[in-house]
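Progress note, sequence design subtask.
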């Protein structure tokens, strides 16, 4: 107990007034990870032309990073609680820098796949560490809400700026430059983090459950991989989809049962029994499920239907980024004013309104409509994510911040993967039938064109003449029709999230800081009923003042008949004894 108390005192002393500098370092760390999740997307054609990967190799080049990162979040999040979150973060910096250098100069697809996997390991060490250190450095919930707002805004900036930055670098340099941009930042972050970031740990009771951590990693990997294969067009009953999904789900079920039986689990599953925590996690999944699938389809719409370049596409998405930044920066004030329930619910509703507004898009460019829709989408969705992350992290005990952060980030990744799979499947179901049977187009050509809009354009170019023009027009019309159907499904999911958010607390509870030395398990936790010390009244015979000169009654030799022999035996003797607080000097036992 004294070790935990001393560590907490050292953490507060180390952070102190520098906590905002610590937040800056954590946000730059998160920016690196968020950039690498999307910066490669626009470089895929250049990579394909240079390295000549097969279809399977290209799939792994794109998916190795998010797959490995998602599967290891729980492992490294809980490891940071045990050995130190700063230590895990600094090791993650080193791995991320080494992997970036290898990826930039990869000469074969397999080397690039390995480097992307190593980037995923580094990202899995960095992401939960940033959020758990933030939880430790900002114990006051009001200040922590401001910090989480900045943190979520930076995450949105990284994800949205990635395609813009990647498009610029690919147009002016070569595809490896999208990885080299990490090295100067890491050269500054590594020594700066070592000096400025405070070390923090959880309780560290009992041995670290290595087997449980590996089970969680393999389970998440199987589920995310199966979901991604489903989004890539594999049938839901195919072995490539069903096998990983079933194996991953079985491992996760075994992991949960193992954690419930262990005296010192990696993750306290009782957190999910708290409505605030479980609802926040569900809201993160639903928000990402709606966002990522929409972003993927929106990029295809801007490039293939409107004919914009990758750089122009990235610039069109910037209003979404700026709106998300504004929502993150103002999130703390919004949370205090509205409370978690209304903030997350109205964030979902605002996002659904933005999605329904985008249904008005057609085959011709409408910049004003797109900008308005993206602004509402970015602001509403970031408001939802802010409220959900803040509620989840504040509900979790401080000594389990790493595990809670890992759960939040894993939910983020799972929601993103399921969004691509679900909304991509809806899009394909609405697009393919009309394209596969176009009058005047051979059946084989129509079947190939039904795979995607990009494939339809290639088939139309090969056909040429009236048949090619007819196929191109039909494909564009079918894609826009599929986009409208997908937007309606997404709006329904967002409204479902608004209903789910009604389980969150009505107001933002800010309990007083816990007393030094009180274990986390005995502290007042958000969402728990507040206990009030009993109001003690003197018995009738003791009311009023004792006349001057009256001698103090002598204590009986038997403590069972004289409560003053032990003040804790009768709470009326000293109210502080009723709460277990230490008695002042001179008030010890009889």
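Output:
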């Amino acid at each position: 107990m004294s070790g935990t108390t001393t560590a907490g005192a050292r953490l507060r002393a180390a952070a102190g007034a520098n906590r905002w500098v610590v937040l800056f370092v954590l946000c730059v760390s998160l920016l690196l990870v968020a950039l690498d999740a999307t910066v490669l997307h626009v470089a895929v054609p250049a990579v394909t032309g240079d390295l000549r990967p097969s279809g399977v190799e290209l799939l792994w080049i794109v998916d190795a990073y998010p797959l490995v990162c998602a599967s290891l979040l729980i492992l490294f999040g809980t490891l940071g609680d045990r050995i130190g979150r700063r230590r895990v973060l600094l090791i993650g910096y080193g791995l991320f820098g080494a992997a970036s250098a290898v990826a930039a100069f990869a000469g074969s697809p397999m080397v690039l796949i390995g480097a992307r996997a190593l980037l995923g390991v580094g990202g899995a060490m960095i992401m939960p560490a940033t959020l758990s250190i933030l939880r430790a450095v900002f114990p006051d919930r009001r200040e922590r809400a401001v910090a989480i707002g900045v943190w979520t805004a930076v995450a949105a900036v990284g994800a949205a700026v990635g395609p813009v930055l990647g498009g610029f670098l690919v147009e002016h340099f070569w595809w490896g430059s999208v990885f080299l941009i990490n090295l100067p930042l890491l050269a500054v972050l590594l020594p700066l983090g070592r000096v400025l970031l405070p070390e923090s740990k959880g309780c560290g009771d009992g041995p670290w459950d290595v087997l449980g951590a590996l089970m969680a990693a393999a389970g998440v990997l199987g589920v995310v991989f199966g979901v991604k294969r489903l989004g890539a067009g594999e049938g839901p009953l195919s072995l490539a989809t069903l096998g990983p999904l079933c194996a991953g789900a079985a491992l996760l079920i075994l992991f949960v049962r193992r954690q419930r039986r262990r005296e010192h689990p990696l993750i306290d599953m009782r957190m999910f029994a708290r409505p605030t925590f479980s609802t926040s996690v569900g809201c993160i999944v639903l928000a990402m499920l709606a966002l990522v699938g929409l972003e993927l389809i929106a990029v295809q719409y801007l490039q293939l239907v409107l004919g914009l370049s990758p750089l122009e596409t990235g610039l069109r998405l910037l209003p979404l980024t700026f709106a998300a930044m504004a929502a993150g920066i103002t999130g703390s004030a919004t949370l205090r004013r509205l409370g978690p329930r209304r903030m997350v619910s109205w964030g979902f509703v605002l996002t659904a309104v933005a999605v329904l507004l985008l249904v008005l898009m057609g085959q011709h460019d409408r910049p004003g409509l797109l900008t308005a829709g993206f602004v509402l989408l970015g602001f509403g969705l970031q408001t939802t994510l802010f409220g959900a992350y803040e509620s989840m992290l504040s509900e979790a005990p401080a000594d389990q911040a790493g595990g809670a952060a890992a759960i939040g980030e894993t939910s983020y990744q799972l929601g993103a993967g399921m969004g691509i799979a679900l909304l991509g499947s809806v899009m394909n179901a609405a697009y393919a039938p009309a394209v596969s049977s176009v009058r005047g187009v051979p059946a084989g050509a129509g079947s190939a064109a039904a795979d995607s809009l990009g494939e339809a354009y290639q088939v139309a170019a090969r056909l040429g003449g009236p048949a090619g023009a007819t196929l191109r027009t039909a494909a564009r019309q079918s894609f826009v029709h599929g986009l409208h159907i997908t937007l309606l499904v997404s709006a329904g999911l967002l409204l479902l999230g608004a209903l789910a958010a009604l389980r969150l607390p009505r107001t933002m509870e800010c309990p007083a800081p816990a007393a030094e030395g009180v274990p986390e398990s005995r502290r007042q936790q958000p969402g728990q009923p507040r206990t009030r010390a009993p109001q003690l009244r003197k018995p009738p015979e003791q009311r009023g003042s004792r006349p001057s000169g009256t001698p103090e009654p002598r204590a009986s030799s038997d403590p069972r008949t004289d409560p003053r022999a032990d003040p804790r035996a009768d709470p009326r003797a000293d109210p502080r004894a009723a709460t277990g607080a230490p008695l002042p000097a001179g008030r010890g036992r009889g």
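The radius of gyration is 29 Å. Work on this subtask will continue into the next period as scheduled.
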